[in-house]
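ok here's Glycolate oxidase iron-sulfur subunit, seq below lol
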Amino acid sequence: MNTVPNPIPPSDPAARELLRLADQCVKCGLCLPHCPTYAQTRDEGDSPRGRIALIQGWASGQLVWNAALAAHLEGCLGCRACERACPSLVAYGRLIDGARACRQAQRPRWQRWWSRRRLETVSDAVQVRRLVGLLARLRGAGALAWLGRLAPSRLAVYLRLARVIGTPSPASAVPSVTMAGDAVELFVGCTQEGLQGGAVMAARALLARLGVRARIADESLCCGALLRHAGHPEAADRRRARVAEVHAGRTLVGFSSACVGELREHPGLAGTAELCAYLDALVWPETLRLRPAPLRVLVHEPCTHRTLLGGNAAVHRLLGRIPGVVLIGLGEQASCCGAAGTYMLERPGMARALFADQLAAIRAAAPELIVTTNLGCALQLAASLREAGLEIAVEHPVELLARQLHPPLEA
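and the structure came out like this:
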């Protein structure tokens, strides 16, 4: 049975905070050309300005939560492209996350628990590694293709990602190494080792060549971003606070732009570095050489790297060290690929529509390899390219760098 939550009482502190944030918006509309969902639907309710107006109506008690309101607010990608274009500096990310938290608070207790528990499970590193191992066995037995033919549409959305997830990388079996003296701490989060373990191995190898000791915490940690964007800020805060506690006083370096952006919101983690930016800032010895690679490499820029981390110029500089590499971008189609955390699973239709524009640009650019600094984007790109019949590998930039080390890494 579906229930319609009551309006938020205007006296509620959460409602007052939503209204305070929303009142910064002057409804100028400069954000509209930058919103991926508005570009698809041309519906004002799917624009930042429209969503802010809906939040104002709901928080002031003029609107009740219904299917139409939910479709507009839950349909937001959270890419925050609008924030970069806003002359009034509206904190749209805090606003949409706050609205979702208020919505969760109005749901029945069991629904809140189920929503939170699902996300806690998929953002648990141990569970992720087990799932990847299971998927590898199913794929090896030909079961994924069989399931794909029989699966309902909801399950099929998950299977499309399962087909592009490789077998668990040896990185997931590499224990953390405690070293004497200071060491850089690699934040692998809840999914990096299980879903893109090759990047972890590559980073450790490259850092070693650069004379940097690297370690990974024994404890499985998560930045909490998925929980926060789904309306569970308390659970997200606990996870992020634990990261700050474990890595206190250390240099923390993250692989995924989304995780780094989330961690930096915590006062104790404001100095968290993104891996490519960290590598770019190091002094590279003249003896460290990279072998030539005559490749056309498309550098995909995740929304989180563009909006939260200030752009990926460091990625271009790093890959520019490889002789022969030709770096290309998406040009005017450099918008959201449709991943957006769990968005690609919950709203696959919109996710596919968002990627369609990029697909045309990718076909025209004809890259031999695509690199991206966000794991969710990597999965969305790989799955979408496979569906389109394009055999283009997608990986983290550090994997290409490590592969070109001279002398090469031992097999």
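fwiw Residues 13-107 form a domain with the Fumarate Reductase Iron-sulfur Protein; Chain B, domain 2 fold (CATH 1.10.1060.10). kinda neat tbh
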